[in-house]
Design goal:
- The protein is mostly helical.
- It has one domain: Methane Monooxygenase Hydroxylase, Chain G, domain 1 (Up-down Bundle), CATH 1.20.58.
- Helices cover 63% and strands 6% of the residues.
- The chain contains 7 helices and 3 strands, in the order E-H-E-H-H-H-H-H-E-H.
- Strands 1-2-3 form a 3-stranded mixed β-sheet.
- The radius of gyration is 15 Å and the shape is globular.
- The chain starts with a strand and ends in a 13-residue tail after the last helix.
- 40% of the residues are buried.
């Protein structure tokens, strides 16, 4: 199954500037897309426009379960689900809960199935986003410009962006 990466709901604009919320959604969805690309979850589209498609994540995860097993499916799912929040928080630390509650709840289910604390997966997602930040920024910028990007175009954007190289004073983990 190939996944479409889209917002679950319309922008959270009831108490937030609509233009800023659009940027938040772009970073959030770019975070999911970068995680999917990194984890080997194929996708056909990335969008900041809310459209139906909720069952696609479950079907995409079923293919991971078949190919790599139950544990890999739960790990990939939790990291994928938390990557959106990690990306938007890296963009703006004050945007923590906007649009993240359901992703966190879904990630918690996967963590509980493995008897693992959600914080472990959150740390993995945050590290993935940190390492791939130039790709997140490139895809978010493209989403703000085009609103919806096909999977092949998104992959070209991701492949053309540079990754963050560790500073010489950083200790590898």
């Amino acid at each position: 199954m190939i996944l479409r990466i889209i917002p679950r709901m319309a922008f959270d604009t009831w108490n937030v500037d609509a233009a800023l919320d659009r940027v938040r959604v772009a970073y959030h969805e770019a975070g999911h897309a970068v995680a999917a690309w990194t984890l080997g979850i194929p996708f056909i589209e990335v969008s900041i426009l809310p459209t139906p498609g909720q069952g696609e994540v479950a079907r995409a995860l079923d293919s991971i379960r078949e190919q790599r097993g139950e544990t890999a499916m739960h790990v990939s799912a939790a990291v994928f689900l938390l990557a959106g929040q990690c990306a938007q928080m890296r963009w703006d630390r004050n945007s923590f809960w906007f649009g993240c509650k359901q992703d966190r709840a879904d990630a918690r289910v996967h963590a509980e199935r493995l008897f693992v604390d959600l914080n472990m997966f959150e740390a993995q997602a945050a590290e993935l986003i940190r390492a791939e930040w130039p790709r997140v920024e490139a895809l978010a910028a493209a989403l703000l410009d085009r609103l919806t990007i096909t999977g092949p175009d998104a992959v070209r954007i991701l492949e053309s962006a540079m990754t963050v190289t560790p500073r010489s004073d950083e200790v590898p983990r």
